[in-house]
């Protein structure tokens, strides 16, 4: 589907919201995961029918057995320009879960969460060896940050990070057809991948597939878009901006793969030696020297309404 809410409207995008556990996207990916012996990370717009139809920005993790292993929800909601996503869904309430898969311990830091170093840190503290960052971000806003943030997170947290971005320009006209994301690519068996695949011959050597696509089929007709938006009575978006792709994988020793194209669909295959997480940790000991108890005490005070910053003056 197109980037949700790209027209500033809730409809028709909220009609795509679904259950994380048994929605059509999860069922589709479960079949692929089991058939191809792969772990699937599937970002969706989640509708929580058991709790008042609350909407969440969610990533579902599906085991290579075909079972839904669990889900994570977006912790940090942007309020930056037209990315005012607090209008549409809530901040995540599941913390920083890490999923033990046959191919390693993985976590998903959704989109805007990459700008928050503590978000990466908590996934690492919980034991993540690979942290995925599925994103939809545009050039004018964040492209200068893109090569730095996930790579820095890999170094600081002794883990692999996978920066994944949408690619291309999306134009929505008044009677547009919404295209549903599929991945018509054959994958070798046993691969750990986003958004739907990855390969491992053993415990420590992983193959990782990252895919970015401009459009996909099949198509679903939807109602016409209004000419104005309910978000501030501004003209509804028809062009959200250019999604610059450039997906890459970064390692804890600061190395990284080349990025995928800014303009075209792409598939990135990377082999990961998870021993590197432990080896780099043994060299630098960032977690041993992190002084987390000191920061925990200071942050506990800093969030209080009567907090006074520790500023020394003459």
Automatic annotation (TrEMBL):
Name of the protein: Beta-ureidopropionase isoform X2
A GO term, aspect molecular function: beta-ureidopropionase activity
Gene3D superfamilies: Carbon-nitrogen hydrolase
Biological processes per GO annotation: beta-alanine biosynthetic process via 3-ureidopropionate
Claim: Manganese is one of the keywords in the record: no
Species name: Callorhinus ursinus (Northern fur seal)
Keywords: Hydrolase
InterPro entries reported in the protein's UniProt record: Aliph_Amidase/BUP, C-N_Hydrolase, C-N_Hydrolase_sf
Coiled coil ranges: none
Entry keyword Cell cycle: no
Domain CN hydrolase: 1-274
């Amino acid at each position: 589907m197109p980037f949700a809410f790209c027209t500033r409207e809730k409809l028709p995008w909220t009609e795509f919201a679904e259950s994380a556990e048994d929605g059509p996207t999860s069922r589709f990916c479960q079949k692929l995961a089991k058939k191809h012996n792969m772990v699937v990370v599937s970002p969706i717009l989640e509708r929580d029918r058991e709790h008042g139809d609350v909407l969440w920005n969610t990533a579902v993790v599906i085991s290579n057995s075909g079972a839904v292993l669990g889900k994570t929800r977006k912790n940090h909601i942007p309020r930056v320009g037209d990315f005012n996503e607090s209008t549409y869904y809530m901040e995540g309430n599941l913390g920083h879960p890490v999923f033990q898969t046959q191919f390693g311990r993985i976590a998903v830091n959704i989109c805007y969460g990459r700008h928050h170093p503590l978000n990466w840190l908590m996934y690492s503290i919980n034991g993540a060896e690979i942290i995925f960052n599925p994103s939809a971000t545009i050039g004018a806003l964040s492209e200068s940050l893109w090569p730095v943030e996930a790579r820095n997170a890999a170094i600081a947290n002794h883990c692999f990070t996978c920066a994944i971005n949408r690619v291309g320009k999306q134009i929505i006209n008044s009677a547009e057809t919404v295209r549903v994301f599929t991945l018509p690519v054959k994958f070798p068996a046993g691969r750990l991948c986003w958004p739907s695949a990855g390969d491992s011959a053993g415990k420590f050597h992983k193959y990782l597939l990252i895919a970015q696509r401009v459009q996909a089929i099949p198509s679903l007709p939807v109602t016409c878009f209004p000419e104005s938006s309910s978000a501030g009575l501004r003209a509804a978006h028809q062009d959200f901006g250019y999604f610059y792709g450039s997906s890459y994988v970064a390692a804890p020793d600061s190395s990284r793969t080349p990025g995928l194209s800014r303009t075209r669909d792409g598939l990135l295959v990377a082999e990961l030696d998870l021993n590197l997480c432990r080896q780099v940790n043994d060299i630098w000991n960032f977690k041993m020297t992190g002084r987390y108890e000191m920061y925990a005490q200071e942050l506990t005070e800093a969030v209080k309404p009567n907090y006074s910053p520790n500023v020394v003056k003459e």
